[in-house]
Amino acid sequence: MKLKFILLILLISAGTFISAQNDNKLTGVVRSAKDKKPLAFASIGIIGTGLGTITNESGIFTLIIPPENVTDSLTISYIGYKSWTGKIKLQRDTIYFEIVPEIYLLNEVVILPGGITPASILSEAIKRISKNYSGKQFYQQAFYREMATLNKTYTRLIEAAIEIQDFGYDASGDRLRLKVIELRKSDDFIETGWIDFLVGKLYGSSNDLIKTLDNCDLVRQMYKMKNDFDPHNIKITLRGISRFEDDEVYEIETENTRFYLPNSTTYYIKTSDYAIIQIEQKYHFPENPTKQDKKILALSAASKWETKSIYRKVGDKYFLFYGKFQEPASFSAIKEETGLGSQFMQHEILVNNILVKRVDYERVKRKERQVKDSDLYKQDFEYHPAFWANYTILLRNPLLKQVISDLNHGKTLEEQFFDNGD
Predict the structure, then answer these.
(1) How is 244-308 classified by DSSP, letter by letter?
(2) Which of 23, 116, 225, 247 is spaced 20 to 30 Å from 382 by Cα?
(3) What percent of the residues of the chain are helix, what percent strand, and what percent coil, each to the nearest 5?
(4) Nearest to 321 by CA among 280, 363, 349
(5) pTM above 0.85?
(6) Which domains does the chain show, CATH number per domain?
(7) pLDDT tens digit string along 67-97?
(8) Is 196:331 a contact under the CB 8 Å cutoff?
(9) Under DSSP, is residue 338 helix (H, G, I), strand (E, B) or coil?
């Protein structure tokens, strides 16, 4: 175990994730130049590399700049705003970046030329998946966070540093190799009932990390279902045209009521290459459901699923950069009368580095990879506070303060991390 810890420290020092000796930390706030409001989920990247991060709900980001990149340029992008680009300037104080909104064209005034329709735009985006997204093997370093809530009070926390070996948009999700480098977890205060116990006995455990990546990579799902895409079965609307990285972006919304659980999906598609750069998907409870509908939907625990996927370009291909997925935390959380619940699980994956050249990374070995039927919370990992003190891929300080407060039940969150470590 001591040898493993020494190797881990060497790994950190080498900069595979971040370096404890690296003071090149850039902290900033991205906000609108129009009204000074913070912009959540703005993309931050070092130009010409796969390094980057994303702002939290308060518009805050922290990015570790490798020594070899301190003279490079930074870019900040947000749909509906002009991209900001400038040389990296390291300083101790928080830097405020203000980006300028572009004119947003509402669908009432948009006239598409040449017979282009919202359906044809979406069809073309699906056809170009093979051109816009990587079909070759690549590697990602990422951060995973899982938080359970009950009536907006946090009831469990898992955080992990992970490696992802992906085999391309057309590869089965079963081929993905996910390796957990570090993991820490709080005590578990999720409330469960007899239905959860019964389902667990019938279907066994599932790995939320694998499930999250599978749910968040919506482009991969679209490719799998490309042959089933029929624009006549769904309502497709052009909500408007905005801009992203000096390119116009179609905002296409689809509504599908033929599935048992209605859903709406919004696609942000670049006009220049028809690349899908963002997808937002929501499922909702049917209007005027029957009593039988309520029972089935309550048992399915599927009445409050939401997914957000953001893709970023590295080289000439687009890769999943950020994914957020929400689902009911337990079957007991769903009320049969309404199909709604008060207890949810929020999952996030943020990729901070993408490597596309095979010589630049080591493959994830089979014995190291996560498997579908292994409950992530029940896995044993030794807690290394030195690693987490320097691991700043995703900082969500305003939210994390509430998590700490909510989870302090008799012992501090830090004590829980130690107690739940191997």
Answers:
(1) ETTEEEEEEEEEE-SSSS-EEEEEEEETTT--EEEEEEEE-PPSS--HHHHHHHHHHT-TT-EEE
(2) 23
(3) 25, 35, 40
(4) 349
(5) no
(6) 2-102 (2.60.40.1120), 113-419 (no CATH)
(7) 888 888 999 999 888 889 988 887 778 889 9
(8) yes
(9) coil
